[in-house]
Amino acid sequence: MARILAIDLGTKRTGLAVTDPLKILANPLETIETGQLINFLKSYCAKEEVEAIVLGLPTRLNGQDNEMTPRVMKLKEELEKAFPQLKIALEDERFTSKMAMQSMITMGSKKKDRKEKAGNLDKVSAAIILQSYLEKQ
Predict the structure, then answer these.
(1) Exposed/middle/buried for residue 103 (C-beta within 10 Å: 0-12, 13-18, 19+)
(2) How confident is the prediction along the chain (137 residues), in pLDDT tens digits per residue?
(3) What CATH number labels 3-136?
(4) What are residue 48's DSSP bridge partners?
(5) Contact at 8 Å (CB) between 121 and 96?
(6) What are the structural domain ranges in the chain?
(7) 3-class DSSP state for residue 95?
(8) To which H or E segment does residue 132 belong?
C-alpha cells in the first residue's frame, strides 16, 4: 500500500514524515539538508510506494504569505515536475514548530537534548503537518 510523505521545508534543514501503509498514523522519518531534498525523495520513492507529498505551507497568523511561502511554492512546482504521478498538496503549518516542541517536552525530552537535536523538531513538525492532513481526509 502506498504511503503519504510530508515535508517541513527549512532554509538549512528539512523535516520529513511518512504515514504507515494504511495511512492512519504519521511518523517522523528523517531530517536532511534542504539542498539534498529532491535527491532524497527520488531515492525514497524508488524504494517505497508513495501516492502523495504534503508540503507544509507557512503563513503569518493573519494568513498572509511570509518569507518562506515563495520557497514552498517553488518547491511545489519542482515536485510536480519531478514526480508527475504524485499528488502534491499543501497543508497549513502554523504553530507546528511550537506543537512539536511541546510534544517533545511531553515525551520527556530534556532541554539540553532538544537544543542538541534541533533536527528532531523538524521531523516532528513534519509529522504534525501530515497528521493534520490525514485528519482532514
Answers:
(1) middle
(2) 899 999 999 999 999 999 999 999 999 999 999 999 999 999 999 999 999 999 999 887 787 888 889 999 999 999 999 999 999 999 988 656 555 555 555 656 655 554 445 567 788 889 999 999 998 88
(3) 3.30.420.140
(4) none
(5) no
(6) 3-136
(7) coil
(8) helix 118-136
